[in-house]
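Give me the 3D structure for Desaturase.
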Amino acid sequence: MDDLKYGTRNKRGDWAPNKPVETAPLFVFPPKLLAIAKWLPHYFFPWNVIFAASAVAYWALIIPSVETLQTLSVGWALWLYAVNAACVFLFYGAFELHLYVLKRQENRFKYNGKFPADQKNNVFWFDRQNVDNMLRTFLSGVTIWTGIEVVMLWAHANGYAPWLSFSENPWTLALVALVVPVIHEFHFFCIHRLIHTPFLYKWVHSVHHNSVNPSPWSSLSMHPVEHILYLGTAFYHLILPSNPILMLYQLHYAGFGAIPGHVGFDKVEVGEDKLVDSHAYAHYLHHKYFEVNYGDALIPLDKWFGTWHDGSADGEARMQERYRKRKERLSARKASSELQGAAK
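Predicted structure for Desaturase (344 residues):
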């Protein structure tokens, strides 16, 4: 498939889409109903439907009985860890195998023309990005994911978290299910800005940003503190009118949903002529430039706070202008501090 129909490739082999990234039309006033109608299928397919279906499958096939959940036990906690680890290995591994090991679409639609496995870097454990990312995913990521899952299931089973039934509250739960991605986006933006503060960035978030050229295993490669903050999105269901299935959907949206943003390709080729959009470009630009696109464009929070980069020349100019103004402010503070010191 010819990816140059959809974008351009520079001399380094890096690919970029022709069209700038657009934010969702949900929060535009006055509302643009036609634009929302055209966008709405993309809200559900394919990713949100996959994560919602995985939550239903977990509840039907994996989660122990309510009676079992009422008592914390190492046995069922280890069972959930084993299932989570297996599912992460299969889901993340499928993308890694298709795109990075077998390289079935070579570097077509790949933002960064290089592959992480081709380069050694001593910021990673064993100097290998993939080894480092996989170890952090399973040692910390899946462990904390499971820990939060266990606590929330126990809370639901014992009445410490709301448990509404679908038969009695269909519209309330349908609304909560509908806004699960919105909850995730809001939470992600807030904690992401927090961990970009200098102290937390240095000691926590820099671990994730070591993967400047992200790949599937980069998705949950984080410091344990960031894992707690990121996967803690499930805790909203302690106060929302919800139930365990929607809590699992929220958790899966964070855990499995990290893949599209880190897959490193704009589109995944399926068969001879079908393409699946990853919608990863906004977050790829965050990994590339660090201080833009703290959210994922569902809510235009970055536009509202002046940190939006849509991949266009105008977006680049806005980013550089912001950097210039910050440099001027820092220089002015330094000069003021030096003058005060000289006066003493």
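Strands lie at 7-9, 15-17, 267-270, 274-277. Let me know if you want a second pass.
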